[in-house]
Amino acid sequence: MSIKFEKVSYTYFPGSPLEKKGLDNVSFKIKEGQFIAIIGHTGSGKSTLMQHFNALLKPSKGRIEIAGQTILPTTSNKNLKELRKHVSLVFQFPEAQLFENTVLDDIAFGPKNFGYSEQKAKEKAWTWLTRVGLPKSVANRSPFDLSGGQMRQVAIAGVMAYEPDILCLDEPAAGLDPRARKQMMGLFSKYQQEGHTVILVTHNMDDVANYANDVLVMESGKLIKHARPAEVFKDRPWLKEHYLEEPKASLFASKLTNFTFSNTPLTIKELVKGIENNLKE
Amino acid sequence: MAKDSIIKIRNVSFTYPDTTSPAINNISFDIKRGSWTSIIGHNGSGKSTIIRLINGLLVPDNKNSPYIEVDGTELTDKTVWNIRDKVGIVFQNPDNQFVGATVADDVAFGLENRGVPRSKMLKIVPEAIKAVGMDDYTNAEPSNLSGGQKQRVAIAGILAIQPKIIILDEATSMLDPSGRSKILQIVHQMKKKDNLTVVSITHDIDEANLADQIIVMNNGGLVDQGNTKEIFSKVKLLKSLGLDVPFASQVKEKLLQSGISIPKEINSEKELINYLCQSNSKK
């Protein structure tokens, strides 16, 4: 199956003085089961695009196919629960949405909401509590007594506990320390390898290089590129023109002026290998 | 040293209610007037607690006679409001710090609170908004802005009250790279212009690299303190604390592992690149 956008536009506050184009004629097709990154600046339409994946925003024009359903401007809000069980959005700072008395109850809320029995929901909650890296000892504590990073883990466990087919995340690792960030990105990568689709909205080009296999680049509400990471980061003048950063590894490689790299290195592993090849030739 | 310290912390500990181990454990340090200090440490290491102690949101444990001084004034019940006027904090999440109906109102809020006359506000507010590159949005509703734009407005609000010290509590972590470097550039300019002291709590190694001084924290204690060169050459220490290591140091380590010899004194990115280019032309 694939996710398909056909000429999707979205206008904020249509007909009012505040009218603003959020998405402008966006079309693409992506295969499910991939790790997809959406990049672009602040205000480029990344978050607007993400909110279309589970019809939190519906297109003003155009058509979306996702998780076997079709979303049109006229789609009613009534039958969206099924879609939202399959496609989950995790916003920036999801910890702001915690509300239950205990960590375990908070994680179990999602599965219960989507029809799991009390017991099954608790089982799922235990599984995901440990999978996101929380110690079992926090299960019966109030989520509000935890550190910011742990609260983030609880919120993410709460979404992963009902195992959506398509998991969309907006900067999920922002503000985490490097160890927690790496652990969390590893968690999403594993989730994708287990057969789910992960869609990551991010500014971090190293995460794009390390984890994504497909990239959507947004600018002023338009999709300006849809390609594999190697393709996106190959064209340095194009990146400059659109004020996009490149991964640390390719930036470092570009400064090694008398080295030749057959492919632009995107990760530290590729970079070190490339340096080795040059020096040992 | 002590004379030009704008912040002095002596023997400060802090324990949150209902917990047994202290979040801050007997810490002492100085921050120089006009300097840029980065505090690094993993989540829960006590970085944010320290900030809240400096502006009196939290009160130190009553042991070892703790002492906190800001801009020559000892922090007490009587001076806390005075001290908060000197310390502007920009938090990570701008959504939690908005009050105004428009960008301009929001930036003016801190000034209104301090009784600044309207005539003065009319001058300060647009300047602050311009400084963060948000002048096209002066009358926009903050809730309609994207996360990065909101953060710029929050920073404008702080710049408007012209504090002596500006604390960035992971304030740039939600910005895109160009937005982030823009903010850091703005803070740099303000620092230079007004001899502002900057304290940044950050996980971003590039942001930490801008500092004159780095304080490394772990489990509520101060582990190390020094300039960027001293601290970032301690790859093992940083790694053991779960902290980021500059990219060049990581590359160097990996090259060493694969049998390429690199002299010990090569540390910064520039040094490493020069060394590698030389080796490549010599072979």
From TrEMBL, chain B:
SUPFAM superfamilies: P-loop containing nucleoside triphosphate hydrolases. The keyword Signal does not apply. It comes from Lactobacillus acetotolerans. Its main location: membrane. It is found in: Cell membrane. GO terms for cellular component: ATP-binding cassette (ABC) transporter complex. Keywords: ATP-binding, Cell membrane, Membrane, Nucleotide-binding, Translocase, Transport. Belongs to the ABC transporter superfamily. It is a peripheral membrane protein. The keyword Transcription regulation does not apply. Pfam families: ABC_tran. This is Energy-coupling factor transporter ATPase. InterPro entries: AAA+_ATPase, ABC_transporter-like_ATP-bd, ABC_transporter-like_CS, ABC_transpr_CbiO/EcfA_su, ECF_ABC_transporter_ATP-bd, EcfA_1, P-loop_NTPase. GO terms for molecular function: ATP binding; ATP hydrolysis activity; ATPase-coupled transmembrane transporter activity.
